Amino acid sequence: MIIITGASRGLGEGIRARLVEGGRGVISIARNVDNIPEPAFACDVGSYADLKAVAAKIKAAGIEVAGVINAAGIASMNLAITTPPRSTQAILQTNLAGTIYSCQVFAPLLLRNKAGCIINFSTIAVALGLKGESVYAASKAGVEAFSRVFAREMADFGVRVNCIAPGPIKTDLLNGVTDEQIDRIVRRQIIPRRFTPNDVCDLVELLLDHRATSLSGQVLSIGGS
Fold this sequence. Notes:
With about 220 residues, this protein is of the alpha/beta class. It is about 45% helix and about 15% strand. It has a single domain (about 1-220), classed as NAD(P)-binding Rossmann-like Domain (Rossmann fold, 3-Layer(aba) Sandwich).
């Protein structure tokens, strides 16, 4: 089974649908799981206690976990000096702390088989230094640094840890971002075209596959930075 956080919308929802379509078992985690097939758990990834409780239920049920995909995330496009403290805290708590907490509580479920894959999410905004995304980029830069070091910590246990850093992909995370703003970012990519959730899903499937067992501690940018 593959654990997916943020499975109710955006990239998380797309990844969940693709994996289920491909025959993989999925454990969905989201704030609201009313319309998601079981097994699914309502949980705030910013709460260590909530995630720990979910991990305990998965372990008690004897479910074998082969991977963890941390797709939960929020964004607020704003200059740093005009970003309210509440927004700053929410972004850091969900994106950075939430990813770390998830890895802390779910990685032990992978260790028993000495195999598995963890996929965290960053953003091209880190590499490109996008104006108006300083707090969001800071939270994701932390995810990248954590993932690199965590990959070394997990290597002896056969668990791989990688990051995907997408360019601007039209999901609800980009609500309020104009097509003109997106096009300006796309022009700075190595491959200057728009990508879709399907491109992210393709890379996720590759990282989960045995063909990617040589990849760990990497930040893979969709579109190139």
